[in-house]
Amino acid sequence: MNHRPFEDWLLDDQPLTPQQKRDLQNHVMNCSSCAAIAESNLALHAIRKAQPAVGFTERFQTRLVERRRTQRWQQIVGTLVLVLGGLGLLYWLASPIILEAFRSPATWITAAVGYFLFILTSIQVLGEVSTIVLRVLPNFIPPAILVLAALIGGGFGLLWTISIWRIAHVPRGV
Q1: pLDDT digits (tens, 9 = 90+) for 81-97
Q2: Which pLDDT band, with edges at 50, 70 and 90, does 125 fall under?
Q3: Is residue 168 part of a domain?
Q4: Which of 103, 118, 134, 160 could potentially form a cystine with 107 if both were Cys, beta carbons 3.0 to 4.6 Å apart?
Q5: 103 neighbors 110 (Cβ within 8 angstroms)
Q6: By the 8 A CB rule, do 34 and 28 touch?
């Protein structure tokens, strides 16, 4: 049974044509779900609505303007703190490079080559150490423990994925 037009007619409070009224009455007599909606709608319309206190609108608008002014000020201060903090961090990270740039070209070229060689040799050493560890480690750890460690790691990965999904998933209202 198609409830869509009847539910819309019951909930929209729009004037209906005589044919629509007849169709709605016939449907409500045969459908308990739409009859419950119609009954709830009648009960809601029968309730006496409370009037706001005198001056409510003015007080509300005054508080709204004040709240917007406060939020604007907080945004300005927050942005200023973020920008100054970022500039300070950038200066702290870049100051050795900037100081090297003002020295003689031979000094900073030598320093750049030294940094490049340090990074290159560090990558090579880490590669060799990890190769040795991966070659020797299976001889010391039983396969059951390796499988258990893989299962535990997978379980933690699954929990992490679910928690990120639940945080990122915004429930949709009616």
Answers
A1: 999 999 999 998 888 77
A2: very high
A3: no
A4: 103
A5: no
A6: yes
